[in-house]
Each structure stands twice: as structure tokens, then as C-alpha cells.
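Predict the 3D structure for this chain.
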Amino acid sequence: MMWSTVVFVLALAAVSALPTDVLRKPDPGPRYQYVEAGDGSLHLADLWVKVSDVQEAARFNPDSQNVYHLFTRLNPTVSQPLLLGSDGLLGMTNYDARRRTIIIIHGWLDSATANVNSVLVPAFLAAEDVNVIVVDWSAGAGTINYAAAVSNTVTSGESVARFINWLNQATNTSPMSYHLVGHSLGGHQVGIIGRNVNGQVAYITALDPAFPLWITHNHKFREDDGLYTEIIHTNAGLLGYIGTLGHVDFYPNGGINMPGCDTQECDHERSFHYLAESLISGGFTGRRCATYAGAMSNNCILWGTLNMGGLVPKIGSSGIYRMETNASPPFSRG
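Done. Predicted structure below.
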């Protein structure tokens, strides 16, 4: 009798120790995984979605909390602010509707000063006279709670789409004049933005879009989010998404273990360094592969090549491609 009482008490204690606020376990794999923050550091994240995550995400209001920083060749280093719905403020900036507009979205635990912005803003401005708008959604991405940040990725994307729709109406421009670029969580957010601009954005680039919590996510990047969608995988299956997502998916060096890198964080960031170089000097000619597994294992025997990145959308192109890169700049082998 005594033993059965002890067993019952232990069982009751075990049950009471189980999490009671877990809503779902979105993806297969361990509950706790390391995810890269914006500064390149790794943080152990809880990937089970809890009631507290939803409550925290509900406090994020991107329409009022997202900040838009405009850079042009007239102000290449000091941004000018833009606000959703503020036509008057827009008229006081260097924004020019005759130029193409580049919108850059950072990742988790980051802000307008993210490495992706410090690398890509000067590269775009050097390559072409464009409007570059850096979206600071750190009010949603800045939480150490990764599951909440994933939820905020969706609401921020919907809000940025409203910003674009307002900007187009205020300046009589078209989604065809846009190039959306996002890294990590931002890599999925640019897809969410595109589909909420009715899939009419000319060019969308997802730079190693995030893997944790996105395998079965209803809002992950989709091929038809824009007229031409391109994915650059550099840490596939770890911090970055492993499978294909766009019209064209590039797996430089097989999508993992970038030459010159000895950490996952370095791999993850190589994606925007490759894009920056492609804007200015081209190169990065990929060989066509039948599957992403073939690209990762260097088994690419299909006919055809395609250049990765660049300024111009390759509308009509599709497929999976691999190329090799150098360990240091110039990364392209031509």
C-alpha cells in the first residue's frame, strides 16, 4: 500500500511538472534549439508555441511601431524617416518615384543597424540610383522569445505591405518598381509582404530564410509571392531553410559550410555578402540541379546555368542551382 502511494505521488508530480500553456509543437525535432540573433550570436530558443508567446506577440503593433529609414545617393549614410500614411513627411525627403525602390528586412534580435543593412545599403546605392528603405521592426523582432518573434514576422509583413500600398497610392507608382530583400526571419517576411501586395512585386530575394519553426508554418515563403522570387541558401537545414521555396533556389557550395567560415553564424550571413557582390560585379554562375539534395551533394547534371542575385529580376526563370565560391572577397569565381 505504501509503495503504490509513493508511485501515485511521483506520477502526480510528473504530470503537474508538464507545461500547461503549450499550444502546439509546430515542427519535428527537439523543443530547444539554437537560433542566430542579429549580431551573429546564438541563443537557445524554445520552439514550442505557448500561450505566453501569443500574449506577447499581441502587444506588437507594427503600424505604429515599425520605423522606415530612407537612404538615397543624396543621403547615403544618414537616413530620412518615413511614416505610414504621412504624405507630408514623404514630400520632405529625397524619395523619388522615378527610381526603383529597394526594401530591406532584418532578422531576429536586430534593428536598422543590422549587418544585412550595413552591407546591402551601400552596395545597392553604388550599383544603381535607387530608393533604399530599411525597415526597423525591432519592436517585434527584438524579443528574446523566438516564438513570439516568428508570430510578429507575420504581422510586420502585413503592415509593411500596407506601407507599400500607401506609398504607391501617394506617389502613383507600381509594385513592379520594387525589390524586396529579407534575411533570416526577414526572408519569410518579404514573402508575406509580397503576397499582401497581390503577388505583383517584381523581385523578391530571401537570404537564407529561417528554418526553426517554419517547416510547417502557414505563412512561410511561397514561390508565387512575387513575379520573380529567389532564395539564397547558405546554412541550409540549421539556421536556414533547407528545402526549395522560390522560383529559383541557389545553393552556393551546397548551401552549407561556406568557404572561409567556421561557424553557422558566418554561413548564415554569407547570403547577403554574396548578394552585395552580385549587385556590383555580377558573377556567381550556377549549374542547374534536379533536386536540392543534388545541389547539396554536388550532383548537378542538368543542362543550363543562371546567375545568382543581381539587379534585374529573372522573370520566367525557375529551378535549383549550385556554384562554388571563394573563401574571401571577391567571392565569385565568375
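Residues 180 and 271 are 15 Å apart (CA to CA).
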